[in-house]
Amino acid sequence: MNRLLYVGISMWALLGGVGDVFSQEQSPEKTAESSPAAPTPEIFVGRRAYEEKFMYWGYVKREGEDWGKNTRLVVFRPEVPIPDQKEGPRGRDNNYEYKITGYFSGQKAYEPKSDLLMDVFVLQGYEVISTENDRLPLASIPQWTPAGIRKTVSRGGSSGQSSKSRPVRTLQEDEF
After folding, report:
1. Which of 64, 132, 86, 77 is nearest to 106 (CA)?
2. Shortest CA distance to 112 belongs to which of 55, 174, 49?
3. Looking at residue 11, what is its pLDDT?
4. H-run or E-run covering 42
5. Spatial CB neighbours of 124, under 8 Å, sequence gap ≥ 6
6. How far are the Cα atoms of 27, 31, 39, 91, 170 from residue 94, in angstroms, in the given order?
7. Rounded to an integer, what distance in angstroms lies between the CA atom of residue 173 and that of residue 38?
8. What integer pLDDT is reported at residue 23 of this predicted model?
9. Residue 133 CA to chain centroid, in angstroms?
10. What does R_g of the chain's alpha carbons equal in angstroms?
């Protein structure tokens, strides 16, 4: 029994177990050097597109551009509270337009109820621009399924799917 214990401890030490115990704490300088810097936040315009059955937030475009081919359907990875979660019922801000600050993470997320891939936007701040807006021309905004098929998200009506929320899954780079 002692021999087995001795062999186990020896293997652990040889494989680096002792070093790991003492090196788990890193100095702040070493941590700061090894972590990549976050991209510089930019200003965008966001339009909330609430639909009870879907989990995406809405559309984002660069300031000064038209709603169209460069507009992106997004989910947020928030660093601040998401606008409609701060107060009131979910979706109360449908069709509001926001000046939003942040950046695109480079990740894609899959929203199963709409069968769409969307960009992940890191939200760092926002302010309401307007509360009464015309609906967006969805036919001119590209939206993609995981199979690479262009699709238009319909508003209203029943899709025959349950309204229970399912989480939006962020895809790994090798999945898209």
Report:
1. 77
2. 55
3. 41
4. strand 42-48
5. 41, 79, 80, 101, 102, 103
6. 46, 41, 29, 5, 24
7. 18
8. 37
9. 25
10. 23
- Which of 78, 90, 87, 3 lies closest to 54, judged by CA? 90
Point out which residues pair with 59 in neighbouring strands: 47, 73
Tokens describing residue 84: 């409609």
Surface-to-core class of residue 105, CB atoms within 10 Å of its CB (0-12 exposed, 13-18 middle, 19+ buried): middle
Per-residue pLDDT tens digits for 55-83: 889 999 999 998 888 889 999 999 998 88
For the entire predicted model, the pTM comes to 0.64
pLDDT at 7 over 50: no
Residue for token pair 């929203």: 111
Q: Are strands 42-48 and 97-111 parallel, antiparallel or unpaired?
A: antiparallel
pLDDT for res 4: 42
